[in-house]
Amino acid sequence: MTTQPVNQSWTKYLPWLLLAGVLYLNHKPVAPATPVVTPSATVEKDSVKKLRELPITPEVSNKLANLHGALADILSRTQPGEITSGQLKAWMGKADSLYVRGTELQGSVPGFDAARSAVFEDYLGLEDEPLDAPKLQVAVEAAKAVESALRK
Amino acid sequence: MGPKILPKGCQFWPELQPNADIAALYNAGFAGAYGEPEEREALIAENIAITGFGSIEEAATANNWAGSGANELSMPFICVLERYPKAWPGPAQPVGDCVGRSTANAGLLSMCCEVAAGKPDEVSGRIETYPDVNAVGERNGVVSAEAIYWWRRHGGHGWSCGAACRVMQRESGLWVRQNYPELGFDLTQYTKASIERYGRTPPTGKVAEQGVKNLVRAFAEARSREAKRDALANGYALNTCGMEALSNRRDQWGVSSRAAGQWAHAMAVIAFDDRTEIKRMYGDSLELYLNSWNIWNSGSRDIFDSAKYVPANKKQLWISLGIVNAATGNIMIPEGSCWIRSRDVANRDVFAVSSVNGWPRKRLPNWTVGSLIG
């Protein structure tokens, strides 16, 4: 019985491999029988885009994203009419201070306050009014938009 | 001002010793409310000139809300308690100023209903909001009764509903219970001294200027049961003066009966129950009277079969605010109030309070919070 050297055992198939590669590259794909559903393109608000574009390190950005994810969670469990927009703003200020004071996040993102303010103004406006069920939902979406913009 | 008509068997309010028993004084015939026919007629004439209507019947028909309260349970008082859960019953009167209290309570209710409806003010076009008041001010009734009563133009106590309504429309409307350092007094708490700050001569100068800031826009007389029902169904509180004494005991559904004797007294009406089953049980519709003697009565406060009217997403909130009975799920009438059969209170002077020149809705300057992040 004769044996071929191991390092030559596959090389005789090389031309076939090359041919298969060319055929593959020239292959025109067949359209799938069912259409491929692409996610609907939601237009990101300019304010969210600007927040997303702030220069922030991923580590800091994710920590700030966590804060706003928690805010969204609390808002989703708040009773309609329980708070006003003014009270929500005060909440955010206190949560912000408690979360950030004395940590490396302090002063880490110049312009963050104004950028986040723009997002909430875009979603909720500036009326100081009780947050009924629909407005609470919008507040949740605003917090989630901030979280999403910061998540790296 | 015209003649004051003291009800038969009544006398003008006496000089009081401290801590006098107010209920006993009303029972004894001292008049907190009396008739002033010329004031009533002037009120109606002035409102016909302003709005075209002197009565709720006319206003309701012209504006297509006549009958809107038929067979319904109307509870506009919830608009007050959702925002100011501690506002009622408020402190007990120390003197015979029930007309001031009743007028202020009715003004507060109409104002809160307007804000809750979110509609722009009919004159200013502004969306209005609830005025801020601290906890003490809230427990003292949110708005000042004495700041209306100051304009009674005599040095004693007692007044008429018609005259008080005219004052609230032209001279002194809703004053938030707060400190007014620029005017030299603090209205946060309702006190005898505060009540008696003015009387024979009404305020002038800066006090009078403050008085006209939040006036009631219109009043109309409610002459019939149906008018009272429809006014309340549309968020218009009632300011009433009359002679009926009420029992201090409520039955299992918060209903009281007429008591022996008479009270020359003013009270606001803050709800109406015209449901078929109520009329079957009590032989009549029911009107919710709010007294100004703090917690003067006792008995159940549950509104019959009212759990089904509690919005599912508000139940826990309303329980925490004391609006809903946690045990039964029913909505409760405020402390110090009671339901009365309409026929038992059919002879009172009744004025519906329309919109108030209220407080414009506030705007935030922005959403920045002084973030430590940057």
Number of strands of chain A: 0
Radius of gyration of chain A, in angstroms, nearest whole number: 27 Å
Q: State the largest interface.
A: A-B, 37 and 21 residues
- List SSEs of chain A in N-to-C order: HHHHHH
Poorly predicted residue ranges of chain A: 1-8
Q: Note the overall shape of chain A.
A: globular
Instruction: Give the C-alpha Rg of chain B.
Output: 20 Å
The N- to C-terminal Cα distance of chain A equals 61 Å
* Biggest sheet details of chain A: none
Summed up, the helix count of chain A is: 6
Number of helices of chain B: 13
Percent range for β-strand residues of chain B = 5-15%
Rounded to the nearest angstrom, the distance between the terminal CA atoms of chain B is 65 Å
Helix and strand content put the structural class of chain B at alpha+beta
The proportion of residues forming helix of chain A, as a percent range, comes to 55-70%
Provide mean pLDDT of chain A, rounded: 80
Tell me the major beta sheet of chain B: 7 strands, antiparallel
Shape of chain B: globular
* Structural class by secondary-structure content of chain A: mainly alpha
